[in-house]
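Friendly challenge for the regulars: who can give me the structure tokens for this chain first? No prize, just bragging rights.
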Amino acid sequence: MQFSYTNNCLSSTIEGSYTAAPPLANGEGSQALVTIAGAEGLPKGMSLTIAGQPCEVGEVALEYDSGVLRVSGLEELTPSGAWEGEMKMKLIY
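First reply, four minutes later:
Bragging rights claimed.
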């Protein structure tokens, strides 16, 4: 896995034969959480694509505090596995 964050876009790239069957979540019954340190503030919104497919982000929650953005509610968007496809998360300010 390779991650990059440029121009308010978090991207993941898969290299090799890496697989991850569980959805993007912090444990059984917990919500997924992506943390971005050094964020500019609370975005007005976001767009998300996983494996080239646009995702409905209505259930995704964004929380900001002291330069740290937390993105939760991603577990339903990754039922085939947390990193089974490349991801692009574009923050809209």
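The beta strands are 2-6, 9-13, 33-37, 45-50, 53-54, 61-65, 68-72, 87-92. The longest strand covers residues 45-50. Your move, everyone else.
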